[in-house]
Each structure stands twice: as structure tokens, then as C-alpha cells.
């Protein structure tokens, strides 16, 4: 096995170990695009453009990962989204 292959194999193993949690936002028929965008900017530290893209994906695909990271960081963010009336969960 060459040195290049060994390094690539090590990188692939490291990626599997570093699995992070995700906040998944789900579509609903209640909240407006503007409201969802505002909540994503305020809660997930999105830029307005990022939040708009996520809201469009949620609308057409039914769900979208809006934030990844450690569970301890995501839990209060997801709670804020839920308190704001959005449908979200940590996976």
C-alpha cells in the first residue's frame, strides 16, 4: 500500500468518527417565509441569504438541515425554533 493510500484511508476513518448532530427544520403551512428567515437568522446565526435558501428548500423538499454541530450547542437553538412555532428536531 502506498503512502498516499494510507493517508487517504486515515482521513476517511476520521470523518466517520466526527459525526455531528443536525437541526432539521420541517415544512409547515402556518409560518411565512419572512418569519422563518428571521428565526433562522436570529437562532442559527444564518445570513439572510442562507436563511432564505433554507426556507426555500424546506418549502419544496419538506425539510432541510439548518445547523450542524455538537448536541450541547444545538439543543438551545432547536428549543428556540420550537418555541417560535417552527417544526424542528435534532438528529
UniProtKB/TrEMBL annotation:
Residues 20-84 form the Adaptor protein ClpS core domain. One of its GO terms (biological process) is protein catabolic process. Gene3D superfamilies: 3.30.1390.10. Pfam families: ClpS. This is Adaptor protein ClpS core domain-containing protein. It comes from Galbibacter orientalis DSM 19592. The lineage of its organism: Bacteria, Pseudomonadati, Bacteroidota, Flavobacteriia, Flavobacteriales.
Amino acid at each position: 500500500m502506498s503512502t498516499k493510500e494510507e493517508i487517504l484511508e486515515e482521513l476517511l476513518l476520521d470523518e466517520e468518527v466526527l459525526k455531528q448532530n443536525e437541526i432539521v427544520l420541517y415544512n409547515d403551512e402556518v409560518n411565512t417565509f419572512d418569519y422563518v428567515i428571521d428565526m433562522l437568522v436570529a437562532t442559527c446565526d444564518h445570513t439572510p441569504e442562507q436563511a432564505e435558501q433554507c426556507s426555500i428548500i424546506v418549502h419544496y423538499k419538506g425539510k432541510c438541515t439548518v445547523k450542524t454541530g455538537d448536541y450541547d450547542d444545538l439543543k438551545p437553538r432547536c428549543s428556540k425554533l420550537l418555541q417560535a412555532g417552527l417544526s424542528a428536531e435534532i438528529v
